[in-house]
Every structure is written in C-alpha cells, then in structure tokens.
C-alpha cells in the first residue's frame, strides 16, 4: 500500500484537480448552510436524499429557506464560517507559489458557494478553472441553483455512477481537451463516490490523494488491493496530512 512517506518524483507540467466538499474544504457546503440556518430543512434533505436528485433537492431547500425569510447575507455568513483547514490553505498556497501547476476545481456544489468560501480564505485566484453547478442570486436574495447538465438537455451516459447533473470523468476529459498539450502528471484530490469516475480515467503517472473513510476510499480500496487502478494512490485523513503530500509536488 502507498504511504505518505513514499517519494513523489518531480515533473515539469502538472495539473491538480480538487473536489471541493470534504476535500479542499473540511465540510459539505450544501449540508452546512442548512445545518447553520435551517435544521428542519437539513432533516428534509436527509429524508429525501434517495428520492430526489441532489442538485434539485438543494435548489428546493434553498427556495424554502428563502420563503422562510433566510437572507443572502445569512447564507454568505454561514459559508464564511464553514470549516476550512488552515493547513489546506497553506498547502495549496505554497504549491501555487512554486508555479508549474494548473489548478482545476471540479465540484458538485455550486459556483456561488465555492467563490464565496474561496474569497473568505484569500484563495479567489487559486483556480485556473472551476467546473460546478451554476447558481445566481436573484434581486430578492433567492439563490437560484441549477444542474450543470439541464434535465431537458442530452444526458451523460456514465456507467460508473455519476449523478445526472454531472459526470466528473467527462468533465475532466473535457478540461484536458481544452488545456492541451498533455500534462506530465495529474494529481486528483478527492473524497466522495462521485470522484471515483474521474479517478478511473487517470494514467499510471497520475496520483490520487484519497481522503480516508469516505465514499471514494471505500470504492478505491478493493481496486488498489487487486492492482486494478492505473494511477498511484496516497491516502490522507486530516488536511495537515494532505498538506504534507502537496508539499512533495
Ligand atoms: Mg467531496
Ligand atoms: Zn462519470
């Protein structure tokens, strides 16, 4: 099994891909906002999770929050106090300052949440590109959230298990096409089951920094044990361990 102490060789042109919730950030933004502002809606989200597509469910809860008097300012305040580990801020800032690395955020959250949180951490210029669900404030203070792939548009045909709103594997491939020539190495930082699809597309010179004990970990482990994963794997639990991995890049 790969360990934190195993050296990562240097490269010239590198891409780092960050999942957002529980990977770059130390919480889940969709759930957090409701935990802070409307626990009854948070409960509803938990109860309906298996029946309603996730992005649609979050959009519905945001509408109800607005109807109950929840304001834009309250949502922004909740996002700014969401757990985000200082070690992660340090790790990504140091990597960015060394140059040679392109930063790509690939997330099932939404653009308003991500930009609000990044700004509050002084990381608003970290990413070269962010791919996530579109969202916008309407003048009344309602946060209008939509799926990245609209339900009326042609749907992706991912067989790995990505949610209908977005196939992260397809989005990674599309990013790589937009940003050729090939990167010498891709590093993917993720935790969730929806990170499994892009990780399966990584090459042997690529590495996944997989957070332990969450969806991605459970899916990856048997693959790695059986030697069926193309890319290398490094595991981390706390952001301070992820920082040590980032420092090797
Ligand atoms: Mg995640
Ligand atoms: Zn997929």
From TrEMBL:
InterPro entries: HAD-like_sf, HAD_hydro_PyrdxlP_Pase-like, HAD_sf, Pase_PHOSPHO-typ. Pfam families: Put_Phosphatase. Mg(2+) binds at residues 19, 21, 191. It comes from the Eukaryota. GO terms for molecular function: metal ion binding; phosphatase activity. Its cofactor is Mg(2+). The active site is at 19 (nucleophile), 21 (proton donor). Keywords: Hydrolase, Magnesium, Metal-binding. PANTHER family: LP01149P (PTHR20889:SF12), PHOSPHATASE, ORPHAN 1, 2 (PTHR20889). This is Phosphatase phospho-type. It comes from Polyporus arcularius HHB13444. The lineage of its organism: Eukaryota, Fungi, Dikarya, Basidiomycota, Agaricomycotina.
């Amino acid at each position: 099994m790969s360990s934190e102490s195993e050296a990562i060789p240097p490269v010239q042109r590198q891409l780092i891909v960050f999942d957002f919730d529980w990977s770059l950030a130390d919480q889940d933004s969709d759930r957090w906002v409701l935990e802070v502002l409307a626990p009854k809606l948070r409960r509803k989200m938990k109860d309906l999770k298996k029946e309603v597509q996730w992005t649609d469910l979050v959009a519905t809860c945001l509408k109800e929050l607005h109807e109950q008097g929840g304001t834009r300012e309250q949502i922004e305040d909740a996002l700014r106090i969401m757990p985000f580990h200082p070690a992660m801020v340090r790790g990504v800032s140091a990597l960015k300052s060394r140059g040679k690395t392109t930063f790509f955020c690939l997330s099932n959250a939404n653009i308003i949440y991500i930009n609000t949180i990044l700004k509050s951490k002084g990381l608003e210029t970290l990413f070269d590109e962010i791919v996530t669900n579109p969202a916008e404030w309407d003048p009344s203070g309602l946060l209008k959230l939509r799926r990245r792939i609209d339900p009326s548009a042609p749907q992706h045909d991912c067989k790995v298990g990505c949610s209908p709103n977005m196939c992260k594997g397809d989005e990674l491939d599309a990013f790589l096409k937009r940003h050729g020539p090939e990167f010498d190495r891709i590093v993917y930082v993720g935790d969730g089951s929806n990170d499994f699809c892009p990780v399966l597309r990584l090459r042997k010179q690529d590495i996944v920094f997989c957070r332990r004990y969450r969806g991605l970990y459970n899916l990856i482990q048997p693959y790695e044990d059986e030697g069926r994963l193309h890319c290398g794997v490094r595991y981390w639990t706390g952001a301070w361990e992820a920082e040590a991995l980032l420092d090797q890049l």
